[in-house]
Write a structure and sequence with these properties.
The complex is a heterodimer of chains A (306) and B (315). Chain A has 306 residues and is mainly α. Chain A has twelve helices and no strands. By secondary structure, chain B is mainly alpha-helical. In chain B, β1 and β2 form a beta hairpin. The chains are: A mainly alpha (306), B mainly alpha (315).
């Protein structure tokens, strides 16, 4: 809006602006779907991810297997009718194990990414909104934590405390909030100078209102995209931890531990211990990355219409 | 430029001090304290007290921190009671070997990923681009340890071309003199690196190819090759410079896994064996060292970016 625009034209312009915003909003909602429809990789990723979630969480309802007690007499048997993917080194049915292992891998990944997303968004929005000294302190803390590679810290923690699903989730989340915090801070820095945030201030709205009602909803795209990638990274980090011997101990199962257990039989030709779980990990991480890429395109206004 | 350098280095120092405080706090989080970690669970209370007094652990928290910093500044990173060696000695032995491995992997990553990314950008959305994109996604989504083990299974067990373990010599000279044994570890890290860097290079090249200066150059009559390598390359590589600096944590994590898969006696393997033997002084010292490397990587990336790209302001 230029300075010389007269007062009488204001309501009209406001109406136009609001209707544009509504249209933009509707367009954004539609464009997410459109991008999925256009981007075949993302569509495939979405379908694969839904199938994997159904397999892990719905599968045990139809496919019953004993995942509580081991049975050494049937250890390492090749796939048969009773065990379509064979059994592992202590006689657990692999098909059923993939399901419950997937549950814990996905749960840890999603819960950690959500926790990290929420905390990171709050941290970044507060730092970016207030700026100045608070921002400097808050972001240096993020820098400090970011400069310790996650795998090293997870190993360090696993060496100090006893690992279970709960504290593994917390540990993953503890280092996953840093990147969203940085992204949201950057976003907030540009958002806080916009007219509508200034308007909130002018009308006496507090920082909380600006942050929760305006800044966070506008940064939602960045958050969603980041959470997608975080889940993928968490699943890979869990796999690495499992290989290094610090996964969740049995009878609990997760894909990382299953794969690292399986690869010790890599020269015995017992492929069913390795490939099903390995391929599931790759498919899950890949689908999440495809979806994340597509969402980024959908939310990134600059790329729209390309 | 000087002002920017001073400010940026000052920030890096603040971050390093904070990291040192964090690792120091972690030492205090140890169940039973450092004394139990070093002397064992069944130690007598008097032995613990003697240990605490000898190491200054009976002093107030902040005074201990000052002592810790003082030791680090004098090159005393702590003493590994499990390996009976100064951590700094362990580091001086293992660090060059890790640097050699990472350096080689990084070199091959850059040499392969940059042309690959440009090729994909030129062939954007054609079948070969899709094939390469899918391959890089598989590489990225694959757990590193599995990739390493598959390479061993193929090249060492099936083809019998390469040894399955990395060089086992204590010095970096030994690793250099045994290039055949270095192939698989370097290959593992390179595949992981190429998978992500070629993606960045591809999008950076695509972005640059859409710019006006490319059209101008083409209009002037510059050949396709000339445009790509004379004009586009320099601009498209810029973001990669930053990414290289920022990739230090990923590189170190990759090193940790690769070194444990191939039993390569570097810092990563030292860290892993220390977690298994609960060698806390070594773990904390290594965490600090790794963090300092990351901060330095970020710092160098930032400064290099400003030197290469004059458009970026110095403030």
């Amino acid at each position: 809006m230029t300075d010389d625009s007269n007062v009488s034209s204001l309501p009209n312009e406001a109406v136009v602006e609001v209707s544009q915003m509504v249209r933009a909003k509707r367009k954004r909602g539609a464009s997410v779907l459109e991008v999925f429809m256009e981007n075949k990789l993302a569509l495939a990723g979405g379908i694969i991810l839904i199938l994997i979630v159904l397999f892990c969480f719905g599968g045990p309802l139809f496919y019953h297997s004993n995942q509580i007690s081991s049975n050494l007499s049937i250890a390492n048997t090749a796939p048969t009718a009773g065990h379509p993917l064979g059994t592992d080194n202590v006689g657990y049915d692999i098909m059923g194990r993939l399901m419950i292992g997937g549950q814990s891998s996905l749960e840890i990944g999603f819960v950690a990414a959500m926790l990290a997303g929420i905390f990171g968004v709050l941290w970044g929005a507060v730092a970016g909104f207030f700026g100045g000294f608070i921002d400097t302190i808050m972001m240096r803390i993020v820098d400090a934590l970011l400069s310790i590679p996650v795998l090293f810290v997870l190993l360090l923690m696993a060496a100090i405390i006893k690992v279970n699903q709960f504290n593994l989730t917390l540990a993953v989340a503890f280092f996953a909030w840093l990147v969203p915090a940085r992204l949201i801070r950057g976003e907030t820095l540009t958002l806080r100078t916009r007219e509508y945030i200034q308007a909130v201030k002018g009308m006496g709205g507090g920082a909380g209102r600006s942050i929760f009602a305006h800044i966070i909803p506008n940064a939602i795209g960045t958050i969603v995209v980041n959470i997608t990638f975080q889940v993928a990274d968490a699943i890979l980090a869990l796999a690495a931890l499992g290989y290094l011997g610090f996964g969740i101990p049995p009878p609990a199962a997760n894909w990382g531990a299953m794969l690292s257990q399986g690869v010790t039989y890599i020269y015995a030709g017992e492929w069913w211990l390795i490939y099903p779980v390995g391929i599931l990990i790759i498919l899950t991480v890949m689908s999440l990355n495809f979806i994340g890429d597509a969402l980024r395109d959908a939310f990134d206004v600059r790329l729209q219409g390309r | 430029m000087t002002r920017y350098l001073v400010k940026r280095i000052g920030q890096a120092v603040v971050v390093v001090v904070m990291v040192s405080f964090l690792t120091f706090c972690l030492l205090h989080l140890l169940p039973g304290g450092a004394a139990r970690a070093v002397l064992g669970v069944h130690t007598s209370l008097s032995a613990i007290r003697a240990f605490n007094i000898a190491n200054g652990y009976n002093r107030p928290f902040f005074s201990q921190y000052i002592l810790y910093i003082n030791h680090i500044l004098h090159g005393n990173l702590g003493y590994s009671y499990k390996l009976n060696e100064q951590v700094s000695t362990l580091l001086s032995m293992d660090l060059p070997k890790s640097a050699y491995l990472s350096g080689l992997a990084l070199f091959f990553t850059v040499v392969i990923a940059i042309p690959l990314g440009i090729y994909q950008a030129v062939r954007r959305n054609k079948p070969d681009d899709y094939a390469l994109t899918s391959l890089s996604f598989v590489g990225y989504s694959m757990p590193t340890f599995w990739l390493g083990l598959l390479l061993i299974a193929f090249f060492s067990v099936y083809l019998k071309w390469l040894p399955p373990t990395a060089p086992q010599t204590p010095t970096v000279g030994g690793s250099i003199s045994d290039p055949k044994a270095m192939v698989l570890p370097v290959m593992t890290l390179t595949i992981v690196g190429v998978a992500s860097f070629s993606r960045y290079m591809r999008s950076s090249a695509i972005e640059n190819l859409a710019q006006d200066y490319i059209r101008t150059a083409r209009a002037k009559g510059v050949t396709k090759r000339g445009v790509l390598f004379g004009h586009m390359l320099r601009n498209a590589v810029l973001p990669i410079v930053t990414l290289l600096g920022l990739s230090v944590p990923a590189l170190l994590s990759g090193n940790l896994i690769t070194e444990s898969v191939f039993n390569y006696p570097g810092v990563g393997l030292l860290f892993w064996t220390s977690t298994q033997s609960r060698d806390y002084p070594t773990l904390l010292a290594l965490t600090l060292v790794v963090a300092v490397f990351t901060v330095m990587g970020n710092l160098i990336a930032d400064i290099a970016y400003r030197i290469v790209d004059r458009r970026v302001s110095y403030v």
